[in-house]
Amino acid sequence: MSQLFTGAAVALITPFTKENQVDYKSLETIVEKQVKGGMDYLVALGTTAETSTLTSQEKANVVELVKEKSGNLPVVVGMGGNDTRTILEQVDTFDFNGISGILVVTPYYNKPSQEGMYRHYLEIAKASPVPVILYNVPSRTGVNLEAITVARLAEASENIVAIKEASGEHSQMTKILKYTPDNFTLISGDDLLAVTISSIGGKGVISVIGNALPAKISTMMHRALANDYAGAREIHYELIEMFQLMFKEGNPGGVKALMNIQGTIENCLRPPLYRISDALYDEIKSAYKKLS
Known about the structure:
Blueprint: E1 7-11, H1 24-36, E2 41-44, H2 56-69, E3 75-78, H3 84-93, E4 101-105, H4 114-127, E5 132-136, H5 138-141, H6 147-156, E6 160-165, H7 170-179, E7 185-188, H8 194-199, E8 204-207, H9 214-225, H10 229-246, H11 253-261, H12 278-289
Parallel strand pairs: 1-2, 1-8, 2-3, 3-4, 4-5, 5-6, 6-7
Helix pairs in contact: 1-2, 3-4, 4-6, 6-7, 9-10, 10-12, 11-12
């Protein structure tokens, strides 16, 4: 099996109106911009989408819109949680028509052991009719999916094909590449580390800032994967301050502010999230003006 989910992808935001309703018209524009910007696949209902605040109907509507406007790009859907049975029920009832994979975050809050996570993911992989991307983001979930567990999962199930790695631990990512099969894909979960991870064998990024700057992110990633690291660094250097500003007061507050500055969306998040401070908004606006 060849490597799946390589290149540049975007973790799509969910835009809201001032009345706190999902802004489907703006979402349509965002998806079309990703297609025109050269993205390789789309991720719906991830953390950046504020998925935990969406109703079941809103989630279904978002997925259908993304599929409809994807321009035949692969679509991945977030389907994580901290109750294995609930996720299995989701998998059992979900319409996978037009879906290329699922992104499954490590269980949060209840902090399972490595063996618990191993068994959790195996059950999901057995049930899923599409490939599974592991998602490790310890800063959010409170638990780290260790490299040896990732390797066990990759060996145990052909349906577990990749990991979105957002631990920030370079040694862990290197071990994942060292101990997993050649057809297993390491994906950066952090815009800031995308070029670095590609230099050790990673194959792409699931980007946040790509919502606002898809052409820059796709070009940066495609250059890196073509071993044009001078070209990739050129864009990385240009965006370094913006990468950091995006997460200064949490995600997706930063990227939503940037997209508001671009005139794409209202600067609205759903509680308990809230828009960034005026001071940071001004910093992002200033940094955006400097981009070529």
